[in-house]
Write a structure and sequence with these properties.
The protein has about 800 residues and is of the alpha+beta class. Helices cover about 50% and strands about 15% of the residues.
Length: about 800
Amino acid sequence: MTHIDAGTDLDPVHPTTAPVTGRARGLTAAEVAERVARGEVNDVPVRSSRSLADIVRANVFTRFNAIIGVLWLIMLFVAPIQDSLFGFVILANTGIGIVQEWRAKKTLDSLAVIGEAKPTVRRDGVAAVVGTSEIVLGDLIEIGPGDKIVVDGECVETDGLEIDESLLTGEADPVVKHPGDPVMSGSFVVAGGGAFTATKVGREAYAAQLAEEASRFTLVHSELRSGISTILKYVTWMMVPTAIGLIISQLIVKENAFKDSVARTVGGIVPMVPEGLVLLTSVAFAIGVIRLGRKQCLVQELPAIEGLARVDTVCLDKTGTLTEGGMDVTGLRPLNGSDEAYVREVLGALGESDPRPNASLKAIIEAYPDSEDWRCTEALPFSSARKYSGARLSEGDGQSSTWLLGAPDVLLPDDDPALTETERLNEEGLRVLLLARVTRELDDPEVVRDAHPTALVVLEQRLRPDAADTLRYFEEQNVRAKVISGDNAVSVGAVAGKLGLTGEVVDARRLPAERDGMGEALDAGTVFGRVTPQQKRDMVGALQSRGHTVAMTGDGVNDVLALKDADIGVSMGSGSEATRAVAQIVLLNNSFATLPSVVAEGRRVIGNITRVATLFLVKTVYSVLLAVLVACWQVEYPFLPRHLTLLSTLTIGVPAFFLALAPNKERARPHFVRRVMRYAVPGGVLAAVATFATYLIARHYYTGEGALEAETSAATLTLFLISMWVLAIIARPYTWWRLGLVAAMGGAFVLVLVVPGLQDFFALRLVGTTMPWTAVAIAAGSAAALEFLWRWVDHRFPA
């Protein structure tokens, strides 16, 4: 709260000491240049993804690339080039991964620059907006409601300044600041304004380091990625003993030619590695970031794409989400015989009393210009916790008066007749503010007692044209929308009703305080009004305690705590710096209609990766089991690397790439590992047993020179047909392009079998008709068994 000399010209920011005779001018241009030369600049790390070197390192130096790389080098020395094709595939995969992630990084970096905080710095007495990285030690930084404190500092000027340090200290109550008090980066202004001198910049500000690390673009905390890591860990454990057993059986027991034994050993080890699965996940996420970037959606944490796809409840803040930020004054209703002309002058002076007016006050300023004869001598900034602002005014005739402007149902007792008119207007979806005259001092805790109602200010909110369609989308996708607002519940309910959102309207002041009771009320209701910032946070926690995955949207300072605690926080680009800092997703175009695109992108990524993971892991399972069977039966491994490279390309690699990028609207479900393995294990076991059975039959059928090649060809045919059936199941539900994809892969294999040059290149030649048709019959029986087995798994082990 500020005391201002009535005869002093008002500056945008006022010191608390009265009278105000001037203000700090900040650094001079020469002082700024000197500090830049000394390196005393706020050179915090760029908030974005990994550097190009990190991207290359992460994609090249992986456990499985090391395994494949060693095997590839061995094969280049002991076998024809066609048995080394798997190495070139890995090179291509790694290159694709690097290019896609680099493109995603460039998209994120460009969007991060658009969305970053732009503090106001006073230099040579002139305020100017600069980039966060341009702040130097000793700079004088102006702050107001919603501004994020970007460096550590010390207050120089304060005007009712209240700062929320909950993100640093965990203490939810705002802290009132006075000149000389410290401010910490990572906190934000909830009321009032002021200016502070930067005392620690760049990496010296410890709180800034914490905030930067917390909000850095990252790939962690993703069920998808952690699930894949778990799978790969188990695959590694299986590979080592299996590979050792295979090497012993091929090199020692069979006593084959050394090079041929090595080639077949490598042929058994390579397909155990699901090398393309990690790549496809990275590519799918990266392409998701690029697609959303084109729609001006900044994904500050990559798993947010995945997280929003898992959401089943969206909590919407009305202002700035369902309605546009601006408002219009549509009426003024004097009360108790008040003079309308006098009321207009009061409102004009109140509008000028706040250097950083909110949307309501901006509408009042536009409607009621300030009278030059009136002056503000004391101000109480608006706070979302109080629901009102106030000022002591010196009127043109020398008289003084004290006024409050805020929510009628907060300023007046329940039985006041003015509330009847307020309720009627609220039911029409209008916003109503009460102008009340008070006799107590503004700093009196009971200032609202005995408030005298003077006028009702009627405001109309501008509905977002795309809000109704967005709410309809969420309803169709079984995502429940909860409107949570600090405004009057009836008014918010009317606005929601205009947008087609129906359901129980609840005044949050009557909600149970305990979590269980609040959770029940939240499940039952749809629209909640008069919600305090702390209540918003409690409501998110209550919904989460009932098993809901919650997304929270907002743009105001009062939304920050809830955004931080929600599973996914979504901020508008025009929102306060504090909300943009804690949100995982920032809609830079301020369009609520972008949210369905984010949800759809997340569902596409998760649903499709779950599909293609099954393809990769079926191959891993049958490769491990085939190696075990070969070692136990003491026979030659049936395949050369070229055979499995061909099968992997046609039944997994190419189809998986297209399937991973296809549209998918299915809501993401938890337990990724269980859902994938319940299909991969029975599918892989069936493929291995059927293939090995064909191989053993062929070993008894074929004799003489070329028998091994004929046996391999028959086993390859069986394995290809079963793998194609797995692909056909995974590709459901069919569309024209999915059917075309499956048919094209089948056609490519037929081409290899009938073109002599390709037969020689891949060492595949079907001999006679009995054994090939036997292979087809075994594959057909296995396909039927696979259909039955997967349906039984669906029923017995539901996801």
